[in-house]
Structure formats: structure tokens, C-alpha cells
Amino acid sequence: PPPQFFSEAIIFARFPEEETIQSSLYPAFVEYLDAYVKAMERAPSSPETAELVRERQKQYDIYSADHDPATGMFGALFGKEWAEEFVYGHLFSLSREE
């Protein structure tokens, strides 16, 4: 995935014991979420900032709508027309804006 949308620090893992999730992973998630909420509370808020965030979300939606592997699965299960409407019109709806 392109680095402009995804962190290089993402964790993909499969743990053989649920205890590892409860004792290590979940506390780290809670700590991260707390730091994220505090950062959002301190973040500047203005019409310009909101427009910048919306534009970046639009860019993410465009990328994701075109590259999401679930689109093919949705098409196989529900038909191509339904899948495209769901992906472009619901999941990544900003991808349709000009």
C-alpha cells in the first residue's frame, strides 16, 4: 500500500493464545487510542483544516475504491452492479466527487 495512506508501523499478527492479546496487544491498543484522542483534542480546527482533511479523505477513497480486493468478492456474491454501487457509493463515496 502507498505510504501516504498507511503507516509503516501497522501490526499484522496471529497469536496462538488469546492471553497474549489480552495481556499485551489490548493494553497497547488502549494506550494508542488514548494518545490519539488527546491529539485530536489538541488539533487545530478551522474551515481550511476541515477542507484539507476532506481532500485527503477523498484521495484515500479514490485509491481504496480502485484497489480494494473485496470489490471482486462482492461482485461474485451480489453482482457487479451492486458491488460497484456499494464500493463507490457507500464504502468510498468521496471517490465519485469531481
TrEMBL record:
It holds the Pfam family Fe_bilin_red. Keywords: Oxidoreductase. Belongs to the HY2 family. This is 15,16-dihydrobiliverdin:ferredoxin oxidoreductase. The lineage of its organism: Eukaryota, Sar, Stramenopiles, Ochrophyta, Bolidophyceae.
